[in-house]
């Protein structure tokens, strides 16, 4: 297992700087009052391609040798990694193929195509996704960039919490959504090196709480096709992300579908920002766990803003 | 007619500083490519109470003597001035009554009540609004703060474009939505003093183009109850705003309902910000008038972000 180090994060930061935004950190007196905490929202919804995933994708794509990129890159992804890898490949001018569940939001599919990516659709389950992907790699010979279980990707994601510590002062804790664990692993990698006193929390939909159950059991538990509005958080931990999560995370908190949608809608209403359901899970867990966060400075990573505006979840629940 | 001067804007800026945000200016490589211009979006949707109107409201409320505020303040408004005045009155701890059309967005009504304001409902026409308001003032004796035809309000709105010139370099033009003309008048007042070479454009819904027709005719033309998705832009010019518009505006451009909704949805999708339909009118007119704006640096005032998330216009057109 090739575990990335903080030197890899340093190299990633330099490598990706021309292609990603240093996203702003927003505060909200409304949410501070509601939570009793002082919250610093790291707005990766404003990131290139609409999500933090572009950090890891750019680090992987721009780290490849000219020889390695000839056959292009490929991946499977619930959406944001797909379009981030498409963006990165487009910037480098190489072909990219992505395997996406046919149920992925239309906005994400359109964005992948807009960046020049080729989509191959699969069923919305981990098993179907991996089988379809094996066919794609066999056919194209493309370089596989896994959405999270890849040291280059984790090192790239680690640049986000590094910026967050520079943009806010004296954080006590950072919380991020957890699906496969790429952002949480990058956060663990960075903070354990530069600010080991900051506690790291992960937030997960109750309906897809495999990471939470893994954390309690002490080994990876994977569900094949969980159902949740937080479409970015359906995938399971893998060995690399499990390494970081099991070693550095303080706790994994969960929220129900209704709590996630309420937190999402409230953020749109009060902060006037568009974020996707996955990004609302941390705030949902903060609001139901006041005893953990009240009186503390908490960094909240808003992971992405790619949402289908014609299918908003409060229209459907 | 008491015409405000730039000294009034200076006084306003100092007076309101503790109560309003210096809102950020965002840029978008996507919209720059689409328009051919270099756009600087002044994000008053992130402003306190969700709209630029809080600038004028705070300037009026905090400029009153202790004697004058005893009976409170009152106004009529299509929404944002109502909740901005409620916010300002709440910060000063005085009563506030607002006359609103019963058709105003539910989110705006809830926000007025949340700030402690009292709502009196009227029909959605200028005549009903003014008649209902006369009753309220007769009953309460409250100080009237007009939503735009008030020198204190115009001076307050003038602080917005002042910040915009500091946050962007070398603007050639500024464009803002026009309803009653408060923001446009404040922009004229400030820019004609500090940057007279910057052209000022106003943007109006085709369905409520009374300001455009007034501008061409050379005198105020008022419609009683125009129908447009841009609910903040239904009111007519009055003598104070006509003074500024007729003297300083280069042109008034219009956009159809469909163009407004398309521009609004595209902004949510690409910039990940929540803004109301009125705020999308300038961008809609920029995209259809490339020959005016291409190759130029253009400040675009996004006036507010108060929208009913359960009634989004692309669900209805």
Q: What does it look like?
A:
Chain A is of the alpha/beta class. Chain A folds into two domains: 6-52 and 150-315, Rossmann fold (3-Layer(aba) Sandwich); 54-144, Rossmann fold, CATH 3.40.50.1100. The first copy, chain A, has helices at 6-16, 29-35, 53-63, 80-92, 106-114, 126-140, 151-167, 182-194, 210-217, 239-248, 257-271, 277-288, 290-293; strands spanning 25-26, 38-43, 73-76, 96-101, 118-122, 143-144, 173-177, 199-205, 251-255, 297-302. In chain A, the strands form two sheets. In chain A, strands 1-2-10-7-8-9 form a six-stranded mixed sheet, sandwiched between helices. In chain A, strand 7 (173-177), helix 8 and strand 8 (199-205) form a beta-alpha-beta unit.
In brief:
2 copies of one chain form a homodimer. By secondary structure, chain A is of the alpha/beta class.
Spatial order of the strands forming the largest sheet of chain A: 1-2-10-7-8-9
Oligomer: homodimer
Name the chain pair whose interface involves the most residues. Answer: A-B, 19 and 19 residues
Runs of chain A with pLDDT <50, length 5+?
none
- Secondary structure tally, helices of chain A: 13
Report the mean per-residue pLDDT of chain A as an integer.
Answer: 95
Q: What's the CATH class of the largest domain in chain A, please?
A: Alpha Beta
CATH architecture of the largest domain in chain A: 3-Layer(aba) Sandwich
* Topology order of chain A in helix (H) and strand (E) letters: HEHEHEHEHEHEHEHEHHEHHHE
Secondary structure: helix percent of chain A: 40-55%
- CA-to-CA gap between the ends of chain A? 42 Å
The count of domains of chain A is: 2
Q: What fold name stands as the CATH topology of the largest domain in chain A?
A: Rossmann fold
């Amino acid at each position: 297992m090739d575990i990335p180090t903080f030197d890899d994060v340093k190299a990633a930061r330099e490598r990706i700087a021309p292609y990603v935004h240093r996203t702003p950190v927003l505060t909200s007196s409304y949410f501070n009052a509601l939570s009793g905490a002082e919250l610093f929202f790291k707005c990766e919804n404003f990131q290139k391609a609409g999500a933090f995933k572009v950090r890891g994708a750019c680090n992987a794509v721009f780290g490849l040798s000219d020889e390695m990129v000839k056959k292009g890159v490929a991946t499977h992804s619930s959406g944001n990694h797909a379009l981030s890898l498409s963006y990165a490949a487009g910037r480098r001018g190489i072909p990219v193929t992505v395997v996406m569940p046919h149920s992925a939001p239309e906005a994400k599919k359109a964005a992948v195509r807009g960046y020049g990516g080729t989509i191959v659709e699969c069923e919305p389950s981990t098993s179907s996704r991996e089988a379809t992907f094996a066919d794609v790699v066999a056919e194209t010979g493309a370089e596989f960039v896994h959405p999270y279980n890849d040291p280059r990707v984790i090192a790239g994601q680690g640049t986000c919490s590094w910026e967050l510590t520079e943009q806010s002062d004296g954080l006590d804790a950072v919380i991020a959504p957890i699906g496969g664990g790429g952002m949480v692993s990058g956060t663990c990698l960075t903070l354990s090196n530069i600010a080991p006193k900051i506690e790291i929390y992960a937030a997960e939909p109750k309906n897809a709480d495999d990471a939470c159950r893994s954390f309690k059991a002490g080994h990876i538990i994977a569900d094949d096709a969980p159902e949740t509005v937080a479409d970015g958080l359906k995938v399971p931990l893998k060995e690399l992300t499990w390494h970081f999560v099991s070693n550095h995370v303080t706790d994994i908190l969960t929220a129900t579908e209704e709590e996630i949608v309420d937190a999402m809608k409230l953020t749109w209403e009060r902060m006037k920002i568009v974020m996707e359901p996955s990004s609302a899970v941390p705030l949902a867990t903060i609001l139901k766990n006041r005893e953990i966060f009240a009186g503390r400075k908490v960094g909240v990573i808003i992971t992405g803003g790619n949402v289908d505006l014609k299918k908003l979840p409060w229209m459907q629940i």
